[in-house]
Write a structure and sequence with these properties.
Number of strands: 4
GO molecular function: DNA binding
Structural class: mainly alpha
Distance between the termini: 29 Å
CATH superfamily: BEN domain
Shape: globular
Largest sheet: 2 strands, antiparallel
Radius of gyration: 19 Å
Keywords: Signal
Number of domains: 1
Strand order of the largest sheet: 1-2
Protein name: BEN domain-containing protein
Order of helices and strands: HHEEHHHEEHH
InterPro entries: BEN_domain
Number of helices: 7
Organism: Onychostoma macrolepis
Helix content: 40-55%
Length: about 140
């Protein structure tokens, strides 16, 4: 990778700062992770965290963090608690999402939005997972 010198770029200060942050993230990926949850063992990318913090609703924040914590492939094969489908009992049993990551997500959302109800956040998470499955059926999601 060739990094142009700062003299050649002569960017405005804001752009220079973003360039430095991007370079730092590239050189040390672990420094671009943000710990979430009450125990601090779960991390998301700093980009995911900044996007989640910019959300104006608890459900919006939960949906952003969900996509940052779990791959689309995992989400398509899972649901919130695990178990069989209520709509199709003959379908394969789905795995539960990682409880440690899920609890970190819930803790973070409730910490950012104290009036948020955990049940509503869980409902929005399940809704997002259902949306992904629907998009897959209509071939508009990449796995």
């Amino acid at each position: 990778m060739v990094i142009p010198s700062v003299k050649k770029l002569n960017p405005p200060v804001g752009r220079l700062r973003r360039y430095a942050l991007l370079l730092a993230c590239f050189l040390c990926a672990s420094s671009c992770l943000v710990k979430i949850g009450n125990d601090g063992t779960v991390t998301v990318s700093s980009h995911c965290w900044e996007t989640a913090k910019a959300s104006t609703t608890p459900n919006g924040m939960a949906r952003v963090l969900l996509m940052g914590l779990f791959s689309v492939d995992i989400l398509l094969k899972s649901n919130l608690k695990g178990g069989v489908s209520k709509l199709d009992p003959c379908a394969d049993r789905r795995k539960a999402l990682d409880p440690r990551k899920l609890q970190a997500l819930l803790d973070t959302v409730v910490n950012q939005f104290p009036t948020a109800k955990e049940a509503d956040v869980r409902k929005s998470i399940n809704g997002r997972i259902c949306e992904l499955r629907h998009q897959l059926k209509s071939k508009s999601v990449l796995v």
